[in-house]
Amino acid sequence: MTIDAAIVDYSAGLLLRYFRGGAQIDGEVPRLDQRRDVDILKGHWAMSAPVRALVGYLAARPHEAQALLTYRERVDDAVARGRIDARKTWLYRQQTGLPSALVTHEPVRSFNTGPNMLLAWVLREAAAYTARLLSWQGDNSPYLPMIEAAQTQMRRVQRIEALREPLKAVSLGRRPNAGAVRDSARSRRPLYRKAVEAYRLLQGLERGDVEAMDRVARSALIAPLEDWRRFELAVGLAIGEALARASGGTLHLHLLGSDSSGPIVTAGRFAVYWQQITKYHVPAPLESSEAAVRDALRDYGIATGTERPDLVVVDREAGAAAAVVEVKYIAGDTAAVRFREAVDQVVRYGRSYASADATGPLLERSLVALSRNAPVRVGHAAPAPFCVDFAAITQPHGLDAWAEAVTLHL
Q1: What pLDDT digit, counting tens, does each position of 44-100 carry?
Q2: Distance between CA atoms of residues 129 and 45, nearest Å
Q3: Under DSSP, is residue 105 helix (H, G, I), strand (E, B) or coil?
Q4: Which of 74, 98, 239, 306 is 20 to 30 A from 39 via CA?
Q5: What is the rounded distance in angstroms from the CA atom of residue 101 to the CA atom of residue 77?
Q6: Residues 6+ apart with CB under 8 A from 400
Q7: CA-to-CA distance for 111 and 70, rounded, in angstroms?
Q8: Is the pTM of this model over 0.90?
Q9: How far apart are CA 404 and CA 400, in angstroms?
Q10: Residue 187: which region, alpha, beta or left (left: phi > 0; alpha: psi -120 to 50)?
């Protein structure tokens, strides 16, 4: 198994332990607001592989929606546009006094059939949840491109002529009946079978089915991310779990389900921020070389950018950063090169998250996470961050020493 596949499996396992109804993580840390978390998963259902496959298939084959022959009743004068209903014709003539009136059942092709109504319901539900998912994101969310592309494709399929009537007729408050689901599942057309697959996945989420949750977690929360972002997410989830164990606090996952400027995980008094500068950041005085860079850029009308750590652990009760975490996915460089880079960044970030006399203790509580080949600390002559690699993170208590160092500063 490649390290990328292992990271996906590990992240999916953490998410499943969190979302699985009523359970506890490692038997120690209670979690879950079931109603809120199911809603988060349903939001990501709209971006899951079955829904994306359905919308993509429909966009590529807009004429596959099938109309069926149905009959509508109409009244004409001396013109029969279909099968004559003799009884209703006689009654209508008696009631109106029109001797030449005819009540007929005219054959028409209609798209308001059971399979099309199921398809329309799935598309409407997916569009609603995609919009909700977008509203949860911030400007820097790594999921924005995927969500915006999905919305563009969703608008495209909603303009398909054959689906206009079903989309108008469908009500999100009223689910497709069993007959529509059965007919769609038996259809020869892949379009309707894909719609059933997406619909049943949503039902599985609502029941708390583990396979459904795993499928959504893998295809909508993890798979859309680049390899290095997946590793950052895995580290963020893992340190949240470790902090919950060490502090005895309740673990809550806020990943993609709340204000994206907030933490992705909270564990008791601790909050873990992913790719956020946070309000606890205070710009440090510039060193001479940094000031020279700032002045040179200013002559070109360019502002100096503000770097942000991969992850910041905040002590919410103290109102201060408890640790800075730098994550390095190694692809080409050696572990030693990436470790040097990470330590340099952690030291620089520490100047903005702690006062001058507290940068050493912050550095001792900070963490560097490498995807492989983490170096071993051989001395304690100076403040230095903890260092782990993915293999250590996946061990049951691989982050416990670091988490204990963070909680001991209380």
Answers
A1: 899 899 999 999 999 998 888 766 556 678 888 888 888 888 999 899 889 998 999
A2: 8
A3: strand
A4: 239
A5: 5
A6: 242, 245, 246
A7: 9
A8: no
A9: 6
A10: beta
